[in-house]
Amino acid sequence: MKPAAMLNMSLLSLSLLFLSACGGGSDTPPLGTVSGVVTLDDKPLADAEVTFQPEKGRPSLGKTDSQGNYTLAYTVNENGALIGPHQVIITTAVEAFSDETGGGQDREARPEILPPKYNAQTTLTAEVKPGSNTIDFPLKSKE
């Protein structure tokens, strides 16, 4: 399997695992809310997965809408990300999925359109501070 495909499968697995965890309560560490806009060559980037991975602890995930806007979720019930530095991964690739239950949830694979420096070999970082954070990512297809 290609490294990018392995990364995407790992991220999807982590997404499902972490977002299914219970949130809230006194067990939740201090979080900063994070939202922003992801663009590619100055145009909104829709349907991209944004992952903030702290040095230690649970990652936070978000998905861009048609205007490139995203908001990070720490759990299903808690928006935000851990306070501190994060490695950021942005990907557009999607693995194919065949719904064997007959529920019509089949999904075609979509190849990565972003350069590896934004995902498999990310160079993106962000610092999450207490309170509200607006962190935009103006990506370029070629540099």
Describe this structure in words.
The chain is mainly beta. The chain has one domain (3-20, 30-132): Immunoglobulin-like. Helix content is 12%, strand content 33%. The protein is built from one helix and ten strands; from the N terminus they run H-E-E-E-E-E-E-E-E-E-E. The strands form two sheets. Strands 1, 2, 5, 6, 9 and 10 form a six-stranded mixed sheet that branches. The longest helix is centred in the first third of the chain and has 17 residues, at 3-19. It is globular, with a radius of gyration of 15 Å. The chain starts with a helix and ends with a strand. Residues 1-14 and 16-25 have low confidence and may be disordered.
Order of helices and strands: HEEEEEEEEEE
What CATH architecture do you see? Answer: Sandwich
| Main structural class | mainly beta
Count of the separate structural domains: 1
- Bin the strand percentage: 25-35%
CATH fold topology: Immunoglobulin-like
Give the helix level as a range of percent. 10-25%
Distance between the termini: 28 Å
Protein name: Bacterial Ig-like domain (Group 1)
Keywords: Signal
Organism: Gimesia algae
